[in-house]
Amino acid sequence: MAAHSSIEAITARIVERSKPQREAYLERVRRAATRGPHRTTLSCGNLAHGFAVCSPAEKDALAGDVVPNLGIITAYNDMLSAHQPYETFPQIIRDAARQAGGIAQVAGGVPAMCDGVTQGQPGMELSLFSRDAIAMAAGIGLSHNMFDAAVFLGICDKIVPGLVIAALSFGHLPSVFIPAGPMTTGLPNDEKSRIRQLYAEGKVGRAELLDAESKSYHGPGTCTFYGTANSNQMLMEIMGFHLPGASFVNPGTPLREALTREAAKRALAITALGNEFTPAGEMIDERSVVNGVVGLHATGGSTNHTLHLVAMARAAGILLTWQDISELSDVVPLLARVYPNGLADVNHFHAAGGMGFLIKQLLRQGLVHDDVRTVFGHGLEAYTVEAKLDGNGQVVREFVPDESGDPKVLASIDCPFQPTGGLKMLTGNIGKGVIKISAVKPERHVIEAPAVVFHDQQELQEAFKRGELNKDFIAVVRFQGPKANGMPELHRLTPPLGVLQDRGYKVALVTDGRMSGASGKVPAAIHLTPEACDGGPIAKIRDGDMIRLDAVAGTIEVLMDAAEFAGRAAAIADLSENEYGMGRELFAAFRRNAGPADQGASVFA
């Protein structure tokens, strides 16, 4: 089916807006493709260093430009449950490369932060900027110019966006992303959330909380709720960086290993040495980016991608805006109910039909572009499948059924959970921000209440414990933007605000910080820009000011005389405590040079 008229119009607008940057980018990509990689242009000393540890046969092969060499960029560490399975992937990839007549080398490792470990801790202030550091680290690995293609091993929050920025910066190389899969289902996410709220109220102790958390996060693989990590995997598949059906297969299974082998072989097949050359920078275009945004809305995905998708697109010379994202939300229905906007986890989503069923439904109404390039070939219809193993242990694909395996988890396009997506842009006299409403009950889409202002998330936690917040209010948590302190996630505010909402109070959050892919049932206007540190209007709000957050109209306003509000002096915060400790001093240059949230909050131009 042809693309929906609104999808076509928004895509055309992005194409037109991006023309100067996109054309310059493609010229650079094509020029780089003609120059290399040609290992014969490396000096003998360069080349000798590059293959010093290889076998004699591999050295002979790499001495010319006939045998493809695959660069592996890995985000392995064994502290992240999602990334622990990657320990064995390089050897699997090397073996698969040899079977395909090629060679594979680990080109470099990149850092991988677990936001689950750093939530509410000083280290969280490095989290967003780790995305740009990851892109730079991956760039260093690929800068050796030894490789004909790259595979990227990464899953979690800032890691995949950073790797995508790197892949598009080396856009003359084909790039395949290889997932490791979600952990098996543990303690249900809603039960974990219930225990967290009981702990916030002092009704259970630390031992009970730790027991619940440990039963939820219990083994290798990605956390099973639909936060940024699993939104990343959805994006990589719908944008064509994954092989079809690869995203949500559990680690440690025969199918997972077979998919990894297949991905390595496919990366070698699409180099410039073959007949299916698929450079990442040409493969990903405006249609691919729109498909990613549509997938985000249809699944109720992470608010973090209002930052990451903008930054990823810019790496390919594509200018995506929050307005584009918001308008796409107006025409894309919500088709998935996965925690926090449902009780199911990603294993249930996959069992119900997963990405194959989701893409099939979106294609039925032209809500995604089918005429795109992917690492698998041409056309998104090839992704309307489920991956399985045949009797010989090889990957085979079957088209998914027309019916969902569980309509409570994954809906058809004819009977969506709601007619619009989960993300909206907000504008008003305190700036511009975004809100995720897919998990927020309709009666809470509009909140009007007095402001209670905090300059630190800990201040809110302490006020809650003192019993000072048993009332209707909108929490304004400011000086949390990228220039102030690196824009940490404020996910630890969810339990106390959730408790207050359950007590019957009207509550909401307004912040220039982030709220993560786990944004849940409390309305939260996030990513406010200009941020308070830049003298944004959020810095002028005072305790008691009436604020109206209207997710229906898409507005966020302080209800007072415009001249009086404009004439107020902006508050100033002492941010010296955010300058040092846990590596924060190393990121001072990032804070100074960070762009605004609506441009991706990146240090890259």
From TrEMBL:
The lineage of its organism: Bacteria, Pseudomonadati, Pseudomonadota, Alphaproteobacteria, Hyphomicrobiales. This is Phosphogluconate dehydratase. Residues 68-381 form the Dihydroxy-acid/6-phosphogluconate dehydratase N-terminal domain. It is an enzyme of class 4 (lyase). GO terms for molecular function: 4 iron, 4 sulfur cluster binding; metal ion binding; phosphogluconate dehydratase activity. Binds 1 [4Fe-4S] cluster. It comes from Rhizobium deserti. [4Fe-4S] cluster binds at C156, C223. It comes from the Bacteria.
